[in-house]
Specification:
Blueprint lengths: L2 E6 L4 E8 L3 E9 L1 H4 L7 H23 L8 E7 L3 H18 L3 E5 H10 L9 E6 L4 E6 L5 E6 L5 H11 L6 H9 L24 H13 L8 H26 L4 E5 L6 H13 L3 E3 L11 H12 L17
Parallel strand pairs: 1-4, 4-5, 6-9, 9-10
Antiparallel strand pairs: 1-2, 2-3, 6-7, 7-8
The protein binds 5'-O-[(R)-(carboxyoxy)(hydroxy)phosphoryl]adenosine (KG4) and zinc ion (ZN).
GO molecular function, one term: iron ion binding
EC number: 2.3.1.234
Subcellular location: Cytoplasm
């Protein structure tokens, strides 16, 4: 069991990758649907499913070609099982089952969120176990205690919006487009992060849950109150919003690592590409004497290499999914 084909279709990216021995990425192809969904200001589930159907076979073919292997050289298939959009997940999931059956190789369903954490473990110098990992994406914001490649325990999570969702919603409210993370962070580069004091939602400071719906509302209120002038302050609004979100994320991650007595932190997920978050976690970790582990930018957003890596360790441990396994939208059963 050496060469794994990974498949990912949980949201708006159709991805396939070939990974050797859980760490060596031979290819990673991501077909983004951003252009399809951008006119609607967010992902339209039915359009996503249809687009995945169109892209899945060519994306898998391209991944094999770029890896320089034939289908016959695939030893196992790993595919995202959830969480995500059910119609979108079913495309990749059904394709993976059929592909594995045709090749007569084992296959395994992978939790997308744990897949994101594997993006940190694929680096040339991965953290030792255990470590505290902040997972920040468009649909999730959680802190995990990662004890091994297969043992990851949730220490806290968002009670409402995810951090990436807050970036997307603020961008939409300001009429800046979708997805908002990259747009807001670029705009923030020319703004003053201390100009507007948006609320920091700490909840219980000793715990690791998050809440980001309040800050989204606060930005909307600021725009209403400054109806005539906010258009001239877009960069300051973006920078001040980003500062408030990043401060809470980075501080809670460091506190979580302290609470489990381990001097190692990691960040994963789409929002891990945010330069301000990467810098702040690095600064706070240095102050606390902790090592920081950040994935390569190409592995922050949704990709199939992380799914192949997570699947490799499951298959290597003897796990193999049955053909009647279903996907899940929110909670793994
Ligand atoms: O992990 P991901 O690709 O998909 C999900 O599993 O959700 O994360 C996508 C999220 C989006 O909300 C996007 O706006 C956000 O990641 N994002 C960023 C940045 N790049 C992507 N947020 C802040 N700063 C960025 N540079
Ligand atoms: Zn994701």
């Amino acid at each position: 069991m050496k060469t794994i084909l990974g498949i990912e279709s949980s949201c708006d990216e159709t991805a396939a990758a070939v990974v050797s021995r859980g760490t060596e990425i031979l290819s990673s192809v991501v077909a983004s649907q951003i252009k399809v969904h951008a006119p609607f200001g967010g992902v339209v589930p039915e359009l996503a499913s249809r687009k995945h159907l169109e892209s899945i076979a060519p994306v898998v073919e391209q991944a094999l070609e770029e890896a320089g292997i034939t289908a016959g050289q695939v030893d196992g298939v790993a595919v995202t099982r959830g969480p995500g959009l059910v119609g979108a997940l079913l495309v990749g999931f059904s394709f993976a089952k059929a592909y594995a059956l045709a090749l007569d190789v084992p296959w395994v369903g992978v939790n997308h969120l744990l897949g994101h954490i594997h993006s940190v473990l694929m680096s040339p110098s991965p953290p030792e176990f255990p470590f505290a990992a902040l997972l920040v994406s468009g649909g999730h914001t959680s802190i995990y205690k990662v004890s091994s490649r297969t043992d990851m325990e949730v220490m806290g999570q968002t009670r409402d919006d995810a951090a990436g969702e807050a970036f997307d919603k603020v961008s939409k409210a300001m009429g800046l487009g979708y997805p908002g993370g990259e747009i807001i962070s670029k705009l923030a580069d020319s703004g003053d992060p201390h100009k507007i004091s948006f609320p920091r939602s700490w909840l219980d400071k000793k715990k690791f849950d998050f809440s980001f719906s309040g800050i989204k509302t606060a930005v909307g209120r600021y725009m209403q109150v400054h109806e005539e002038t906010w258009q001239d302050e877009k960069a300051d609004i973006a920078a001040s919003f980003q500062e408030a979100v990043v401060e809470v994320l980075a501080t809670k991650l460091i506190n979580a690592a302290k609470s489990i007595g381990c001097p190692r932190v990691a960040v994963a997920g789409g929002v891990a590409a945010n330069a301000c978050l990467r810098d702040r976690v690095t600064q706070l970790a240095a102050k606390a004497g902790m090592s920081v582990h950040l994935p390569d930018i190409s592995l922050c957003g949704d990709n199939a290499a992380m799914i192949a890596a997570a699947g490799y360790y499951k298959l290597a441990a003897g796990e193999c999914s049955p053909l009647n396994m279903d996907v899940f939208s929110r909670v793994e059963k």
